[in-house]
């Protein structure tokens, strides 16, 4: 039972959400609004061990600091699969966002309270461009309708410029896997084994599984896309082989596959990007053959920790560079894969997490992938309406440091504004 004050419709929506996320969101709101704060031992069972490890002195002091900004009223609740955002208003009317991310077992992996990210309304493409302009940040944008004759561009900005994309690379790994499944080389019920040399860093939760744990290919691929699990991606890439993933680049329409050769795993990017500085120097100076040799040398358990990440490394080529058009083409190929897949596995993988709240009456089919790393943020969607008309939206940002980009809530919000605005389906020539 939620005892917090707030908007009646929002409180009703929060109370009615019977999902694991709804349960976690109600519990988190009560932490900040209930008369008393539970003891740490009562809090611990709700969180993954990695979250608790980041708070060795307990959660009480952090939560007490958040509670001191109240009392709060609940203003908005936005659940999207395993992520949720609750907007809370303090006595002065200042709004804060309580963000939650769950792992696959329903435990809280991320819980954060920060000032609300205000996203402006987007009623026209010029308004979108005004919102995207940020000092020190390069951006690309593409909105297009997919037709049998090719994409019809609705609006674009630097859409043919390669930019780092973070985890969007997993779309190519998925297509390499789909090729192996179609050729009969891999079955969805086959298993992969968690091994030390394939263990990566979050996002995701497969890195927390004990060595030797066996997980089906289907579940691993699902986590790779729906939860952007880095260890899952590395397990799938290892299963099909680096060459198969590199072949998928051309098959998926990447404009210059050489940009991503050798194709990096997430573990390799972490190790090269934030490990021994001499590795970065060798990577930056090496040709493709030298870089492949370097990857063979670091085929070992990861030495980098999440706390080591900070400086940007994407300008050294330690990322996966794509244009907005590359993103459009790989999403369109995946739509074709989904249409061809009688098992429904592709559709289930690609539609589980839409990234933002979407009107399913208007958009019954939504494919989504995001990507980020220090100085990098990227979101892309393929949306198909009931008339089978499909549209792609791609937003990309790159900067020399993370601060001007932030945590991605602003760029994600702009994507939601575009999807909600009607701009995608507005008749040609209507510039309102």
TrEMBL record:
Pfam families for the chain: Beta-lactamase2, ORF_12_N
Keywords per UniProt: Hydrolase
Every ORF 12 gene product N-terminal domain range: 19-108
Listed Gene3D superfamilies: 3.10.450.280, DD-peptidase/beta-lactamase superfamily, ORF12 helical bundle domain-like
Domain Beta-lactamase class A catalytic: 158-268
InterPro entries for this protein: Beta-lactam/transpept-like, Beta-lactam_cat, Beta-lactam_class-A, ORF_12_N
A Gene Ontology molecular function term of the record: hydrolase activity
Protein name as annotated: Serine hydrolase
């Amino acid at each position: 039972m939620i005892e917090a004050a707030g908007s009646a419709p929002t409180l009703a929506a929060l109370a009615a959400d019977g999902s694991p996320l709804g349960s976690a969101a109600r519990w988190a709101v009560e932490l900040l609004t209930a008369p008393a704060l539970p003891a740490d031992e009562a809090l611990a069972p709700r969180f993954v061990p990695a979250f608790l490890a980041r708070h060795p002195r307990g959660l009480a002091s952090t939560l007490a600091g958040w509670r001191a900004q109240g009392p709060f009223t609940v203003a908005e609740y936005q659940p999207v699969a395993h992520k949720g955002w609750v907007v809370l208003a303090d006595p002065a009317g200042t709004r804060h966002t309580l963000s939650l991310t769950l792992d696959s077992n329903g435990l809280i992996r991320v819980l954060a309270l920060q000032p609300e990210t205000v996203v402006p309304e987007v009623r026209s493409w010029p308004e979108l461009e005004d919102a995207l302009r940020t000092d020190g940040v390069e951006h690309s944008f593409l909105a297009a309708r997919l037709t049998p004759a090719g994409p019809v561009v609705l609006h674009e900005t630097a859409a043919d410029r390669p930019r780092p994309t973070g985890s969007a690379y997993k779309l190519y790994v998925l297509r390499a896997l789909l090729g192996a499944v179609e050729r009969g080389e891999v079955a969805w019920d086959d298993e992969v084994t968690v091994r030390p040399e394939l263990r990566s860093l979050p996002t995701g939760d497969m890195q927390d599984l004990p060595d030797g744990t066996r997980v089906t290919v289907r579940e691993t691929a699902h986590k790779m896309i729906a939860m952007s699990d880095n260890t899952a991606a590395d397990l799938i890439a290892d299963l099909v082989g680096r060459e198969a993933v590199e072949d998928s680049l051309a098959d998926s329409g990447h404009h210059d596959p050489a940009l991503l050769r050798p194709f990096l795993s997430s573990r390799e990017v972490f190790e090269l990007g934030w490990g021994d500085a001499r590795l970065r120097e060798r990577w930056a100076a090496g040709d493709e053959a030298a870089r492949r040799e370097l990857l063979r040398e670091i085929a070992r358990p990861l030495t980098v920790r999440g706390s080591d990440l900070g400086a940007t490394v994407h300008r050294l080529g330690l990322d996966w560079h794509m244009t907005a058009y590359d993103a459009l083409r790989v999403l369109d190929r995946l739509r074709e894969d989904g249409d061809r897949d009688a098992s429904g596995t592709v559709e289930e993988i690609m539609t589980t997490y839409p990234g933002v709240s979407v009107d399913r009456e208007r958009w019954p089919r939504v494919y989504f992938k995001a990507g980020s790393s220090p100085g990098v943020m990227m979101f892309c969607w393929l949306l198909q309406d009931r008339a089978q008309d499909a549209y792609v939206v791609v937003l990309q940002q790159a900067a020399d440091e993370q601060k001007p980009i932030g945590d991605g809530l602003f760029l994600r919000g702009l994507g939601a504004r575009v999807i909600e605005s009607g701009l995608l389906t507005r008749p040609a020539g209507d510039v309102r």
